[in-house]
Amino acid sequence: MSKSGFKDVEFDKSKPEAQRPLGSVNTPPDSPKRKHRPMELPLHKASDHGSIGHRRRTSWGELEGSLTIPVSPGSHNTIEVPSLRSPDADSTQFMHNLSATPSMRERRVSRNSFGASLPIPKSKRQSRLSSVVYPEGEGAKAGLPMSATRDILTAQAQDVHSEKVQAAKNMAFVFDIDGVLVHGDRLIPQGKATLDMLNGDNQLGIKIPHIFLTNGSGKPELARVEQLSKILHNPISTDQFIQSHTPMRALAEYYSTVLVVGGEGYRCREVAEEYGFKDIVVPNDIVAWDPTIAPYRVFTDAERATSRPRDFTKMNIEAILVFSDSRDYATDMQIIMDLLRSERGRLGTTAADPVSQRIPIYFSQGDLLCPTEHPTPRMSQGAFRIGLEAMYKALTGEELERVVYGKPELATYKYADEVIASWMDELHGEERVPANVYMIGDNPASDIIGGNMYGWNTCLVRTGVFQGGDNDEENPANFGVFTNVWDAVTAACRKELGDDFGFKWDARKMNPVLHDSHAASAVEV
Ligand code: G3P
Ligand code: MG
């Protein structure tokens, strides 16, 4: 694995947190990036909150800074993963030079050098709503074994081809969703055929492990897999599904009162409740309390009736979590900015020092654009964040430090490893990550760069964001570029399982009765 890769930042989970390396995941010791300023901006004093601390020893043995993440006094079911992104705002590069003083420009040295640590759950087995969702009215179809007879036949097939079986258990697929399997609510036809095949409609009747890793967001995991299983006509479990905010459930150990932003209606409040956050505020609660806070908002009676106003001058919001795309930029940006400039998250106050008293802000993913039904891609959370960063800089003169989850962050890929291992356990009784993992994605800047850095095989498909030539120039897929997901997956299977691997279950090949007499109707398959 190259020095720039994720694999270089493995750490020993058994060591005390303070001894683990943090930062400089892609920066050699003598790189100019090492001049990155240590940040002197603790969000909480260690003595106040039992903070993990602001400066830590990096893998290179030097002290570096990061956004402070306060430690909750209770049990710790989380691990922290160093961020690939600098915690500094991205907006500076988009702003006119005059907007930054020379001293501020000096403070910003590099992008993507290192940043804060991102807590993720230690184990994915924390979901209280773990379940498999079958496509409506299709029961156990979709390539799954349907009967005792078929079970016997697949067992026979697998006995005969034991080497192929081992190889099939030693590979796994990680699917991006939008642009690979679906476009919004629209099926990409090869997506269904691919999942049918991986769910057992293949020569061995074997389930080839696969999980879903999307930067999508905005509703609880169960609701999203229900929707996807319907579109893809295949069963999907919450235990094989990661959306951008899924690993952010770890933050419930760190913060009690949070502002949750984005998504339709109150779906993201539901998400936060399901993740275990104790006290969840959404922008509507604040607008209902004081409509003048958002002067351009037309607040309906229905919205007022469903909100939960209280006196926000008497409580502190501890962190801002942008879970999904904002449905009302003006209101959300105003409220976020008010909170970022307040004294430790108390509305109605303005901090004397906007930096040391600032509460942290987290984004579930960083995609600038997202393909939709519209002819050209639409702005996504990354664009919203950059807008906020620029506003914050213009209003305070300071860079906004922030944490961004989602692909291609290391934390997200580490979490994916946990999910792959436990899904392997579920399917084949072996809790481990197979040696040959294939990421299938449409976005070179997210799926492919992340997969490459994590040491996975990467396949770029032409059904989504990527519309280029032979391969992406900046982040080429290492296994190749394919017309669609079926072509990518079958190429990977041929490599791992042999050119003769059959992509269709054929009972007649295994059943002597059917094989010899063609008495198909006499045998249940
Ligand atoms: O950018 C937002 C999201 O819709 C992307 O989803 O599945 O392509 O990671 P996905
Ligand atoms: Mg995609």
Quick overview of this protein structure:
With 525 residues, the chain is of the alpha/beta class.
Report on the structure:
The protein has 525 residues and is of the alpha/beta class. It contains 16 helices and 21 strands. The protein has helices at 46-49, 102-107, 148-160, 162-169, 189-198, 221-232, 267-275, 283-289, 301-306, 329-340, 381-396, 410-428, 444-453, 485-497, 507-510, 512-517; strands at residues 55-57, 63-65, 78-82, 117-121, 132-133, 171-175, 182-183, 186-187, 210-213, 236-237, 241-242, 257-261, 279-281, 319-322, 361-363, 369-370, 378-379, 403-404, 436-441, 457-461, 480-482. The strands form seven sheets. The chain has a six-stranded parallel β-sheet with strand order 11-9-6-19-20-21, sandwiched between helices. Strands 13-12-14-15-18 form a five-stranded parallel β-sheet, sandwiched between helices. A hairpin with a 2-residue loop joins strand 7 (182-183) and strand 8 (186-187). Helix 5 (189-198) runs parallel beside helix 14. The model is unreliable at 1-66, 95-114, 139-145 and 516-525 (pLDDT under 50). It binds SN-glycerol-3-phosphate and magnesium ion. SN-glycerol-3-phosphate binds at residues 176-179, 214-216, 367, 370, 380, 443.
Spell out the key features of this protein.
525 residues, alpha/beta, Rossmann fold, 2 domains, six-stranded parallel sheet, five-stranded parallel sheet, 21 strands, 30% helix, elongated, disordered N terminus, disordered C terminus, binds SN-glycerol-3-phosphate, binds magnesium ion
